[in-house]
Amino acid sequence: MALRVLVVDDSSVMRKIVCRMLAQAGFTPTGVVEASDGAEALDKFKPAEIDLILSDWHMPNMDGLEFVRRIRSLENGTGRRVPIVMVTTEGAQAKMEEAKQLGVDGYVTKPFTPDSIKEKLTPILAGK
Amino acid sequence: MRQRLIEALTAAVEHVFSVLCGIEAKPGGAVTGQPTSLPVDISGIVGIEGPITGSLAFHCRKDLATLITGKLLELEVTEIDDDVKDLVGEIANMIAGNASSRLSGDGQGFQFSVPTIVTGRRLNVRPMRGDLRWISLPFQASGMSFAIDFCIEDGA
User: Fold this and answer.
1) Of A26, A46, A25, A24, which Cα lies nearest the Cα of A35?
2) Contact between A58 and B108 using a beta-carbon 8 Å cutoff
3) ipTM over 0.95
4) Which residue from A minimizes the CA distance to B101?
């Protein structure tokens, strides 16, 4: 499945690992856009060119939650809604309720595998 | 509490190495009262606040750090570059998060700092304060030694 994805993480190696695992999970990440924090991701975000956003939670300048808030605000009234999946460490699951209120569609827990990414993303992308 | 912490940290290390790297991490015996005596080339350190306050450090040599990074990126990595530093910090973060989940169910109440990375050549870890409590966990992975130090400020 071809996928245009915006990967937001302050760790460049994690952005690379996410892209590799997407491919190993059977997705074909075409048109990958990378950003190192929420502010950079907002600058690079073009709704018509992105099928999925994968975002880290803790980042400098603008964290994942504020980024989600801004994206959903931008989309308000446009009829578009890009799925957003947070990439979190274990221990942050309790905060996901707050994230869901803001419009996050799901989360992937680090460390992840191609199988766990596939299991999380497939229903979210099917519901797009 | 100390035994629970040792068990949670050991299980977290085994889980992160197995899932992320596909490498078995074999624990040695925990040492309390002092940080690791292993000479290290790179350390990822995460500050922890919550039911336990302190820091967790993942210490290893260049050969293990580059092996893991190369394996995950499917590249030949021979030096400690930005990818290696990033990954060592991420591993420290994942171990802290996983251990906190094991200690509190869902990790609620714990907060973690952005990882700090220290690099050098055969560095020795020494405590800077005398009032800290240490748990040091030695491991072997792919025939190479690494260590997790947990420095407790209070609460355990």
Assistant:
1) A46
2) no
3) no
4) A91
